[in-house]
Amino acid sequence: GTVKFINQGFGTTVFSGGLNNLLWVSYVIMLALYASAFGSYAPNLADLTGDKTLNFHIYASGIVILATVINYYSIKVVGKIEEYAVIVKMVILLAFVAVGVFGLIGNTNLEQLSPMHWEGPAQLLTGGMVIFVAYEGFELIANATPDIKAPEKNIPRAYYYSVVFVIALYVVIALVTVGSLPFGEIASAEDYVLAEAARPMLGAAGFTVITVAALISTFSAINASLYGGSRVSYEIAEDDELPHELTRKLWDQPVGLLITACLTLLLTNTLNLESISTAGSAGFLLIFSVVNFAGYKLSAQTGSNKAVCLLGFLLCGTALVVLLTQQYTSNRTGVIVAVSVAAICFLI
Q1: pLDDT of 150 strictly over 70
Q2: pLDDT tens by residue, 27-55
Q3: Of 1, 186, 278, 297, which is most buried, counting CB atoms within 10 Å of its CB?
Q4: What's the longest Cα–Cα distance across the chain?
Q5: Where are the domains of the chain?
Q6: Which residues, 6 or more positions from 278, have their beta carbon under 8 angstroms from its beta carbon?
Q7: What is d(CA 22, CA 149) in angstroms, rounded to the nearest whole number?
């Protein structure tokens, strides 16, 4: 996985140790984002208390606790949940796209897609980088190497095919959303905008179905990321880049699973969502940039394409600088959180 690859590229130094610590913390931040999304969508199906804020905290905390219990109960169950969840949410999303594209015909909101409504290039790039954390899941592909046949051939294919497919899916979903709803409604429903975008075409039933898809998607992401995050902390502790006590097991699982879950609950219930997303995206941009540079350095041993690795390093590095620069003017707290998190990771 990423931890071992960074260590191979830069040795077990303070630099690699800090990056690996940042990887684990970025997992926690990403988990907090997923939990926040679940907490925002779920009350639309069942209002437990009548209080929007309290509902959010109950649902966001409850789903993290449930996923933690499942991870302790059985890793096989985690795998099965992921298999079924991916199938269900992909069917729903593809159906949403198909119906949504058809529903755009004659829609009065189509003019919102006109370039005259676009922000400047810097703002567009910054907006994309804030949600870069959405691409974090691709980092997990490398961790599945031992279970994949002919990984030298199939791992690169998995990366290229999945990244291209997801980019296309994200773009089409964004087009359908912006073309279906007025900007004002998009802003007011920012926490559950995809479900709201289904309402004009499919009514209340569409809103409910997309909400269910979002809940399944975020739950499966939390489930898998808790598993991955606990293994990352275990690997880092094995190299003594975190306290070696993190290699211990609790109820047959790495103690990092419980620590990761507790930190996720803390962030979810205390930090602003925008601040979290900036810190998470900045962390993964830095890590992906360094991983690409490591791939460039190790190309002779790995057989990787040096040009692709160098391009990835430059693009991720540039995007990181643009993100922090632009966000500093509009979301200074998020930048301070991001820089502070990185600094602490290198000091541990």
Answers
A1: yes
A2: 888 889 889 989 988 888 888 888 888 99
A3: 278
A4: 62
A5: 2-347
A6: 130, 323, 327, 331, 334, 335, 337, 338
A7: 30
Does pLDDT of 343 surpass 90?
no
Whether the Cβ atoms of residue 223 and residue 60 lie closer than 8 Å to each other: no
Secondary structure of residue 202 in the 3-state scheme: helix
Within 10 angstroms of residue 105's Cβ, the number of other Cβ atoms is: 7
> What is d(CA 284, CA 178) in angstroms, rounded to the nearest whole number?
27
Q: Is residue 62 scored above 90 in pLDDT?
A: yes
Q: What is the pLDDT of residues 307-330, one digit of tens each?
A: 988 998 998 888 888 888 877 887
pLDDT surpassing 90 at residue 104: no
Q: How much is the pLDDT for 241?
A: 67
| Ramachandran angles phi, psi of 254, nearest 5° | -55, 140
CA distance 348 to 346: 6
DSSP state of 44: G
* Type and span of the H or E element at 250: strand 249-250
| Integer angstrom CA distances of residue 304 from 1, 51, 148, 285, 299 | 16, 53, 18, 20, 5
CA distances from 221 to 141, 179, 191, 199, 283 (A): 14, 28, 17, 25, 18
Q: For 236-258, what is the mean pLDDT? A: 73
d(Cα 109, Cα 183) in Å, to the nearest integer? 9
Query: What is the CATH architecture of 2-347?
Result: Up-down Bundle (1.20)
